Amino acid sequence: SFREIIDDSSLTCCLHNELKFVQKYFQVQKYRYEEKINLIIAADDAVMNAVIPKFLLQPLVENAIYHGLELKTENGRVLIHVERDGDLLRIRVEDDGVGMKPEEVAVLRKCLENPEIGGTHNYALRNIARRLLILYGDAARLNIDSTDGWGTCIRVSIPYSEEPPMIGAQKISD
Questions:
Q1: What angle do CA 54, 58, 59 make, to 5 degrees?
Q2: Which residue(s) pair with 94 in the sheet?
Q3: Per-residue H/E/C for 85-104
Q4: If we measure between CA atoms, which residue out of 1, 152, 34 comes closest to residue 26?
Q5: 39-98 pLDDT per residue, tens
Q6: What is the pLDDT confidence band of residue 170, given thresholds at 50, 70 and 90?
Q7: Residue 93 bridge partners (DSSP)
Q8: Residue 168: helix, strand or coil by DSSP?
Q9: Is 139 helix (H, G, I), strand (E, B) or coil?
Q10: For the chain, N or C: smaller number of CB within 10 Å?
């Protein structure tokens, strides 16, 4: 349930639980947007026990809806694709919304290079970038690609593990 996920103080969760949370969030959004938005999840059962930062996917899906699909006149979709690639878990959240102009993407990429720099925008992405840095250091990647009129794609790569990451000498509980 929402309450269990929110009340749990751990920084990580298994992919399966995060996807369930995103599906529930999307159901709520469907009441507002009805058939205008659709969610597609492509994730193999073999990666469902992978540990990821809690609330990694929901803000990305929320951004896809509000910044991509809401402004689109036709129906649109959000795709979440998750796969294991050797020692990495690769996560892609993409939409077929309105996309961004190249200069907007450049500003966003600059912001993600140094998420500690403040600003009045991009809170969700900066927060995700900070948490990835804390949990995984340089082993994590957060990339954005967008084409004006075609949509946006956020890619996250983290080390694949079914155990919570270690920070210093302390394991982060799941």
A1: 100
A2: 79, 153
A3: ECCEEEEEEEECCCCCCHHH
A4: 34
A5: 999 999 999 999 999 999 999 999 999 999 999 999 999 999 999 999 999 999 999 999
A6: very low
A7: 80, 154
A8: coil
A9: helix
A10: N
pLDDT of 169 higher than 50:
no
15, 41, 52, 156, 171 from 174: Cα distances, Å: 11, 23, 9, 20, 9
- The set of residues, in sequence order, having a beta carbon less than 8 Å from that of 155 and lying 6+ positions away, is 90, 91, 92, 141, 142, 143, 144, 145
Farthest-apart Cα atoms in the chain, separation: 51
- Is residue 61 within 8 Å of residue 79, measured between CB atoms? no
- Please report, as a single letter, which amino acid is at residue 147: T
Bridge partners for 38 per DSSP: 77
* Residue whose tokens read 């749990």: 8
CA distances from 59 to 89, 106, 169 (A): 18, 20, 29
Is 116 in contact with 83 (CB distance < 8 Å)?
no
Closest among 24, 32, 159 to 90, alpha carbons compared:
159
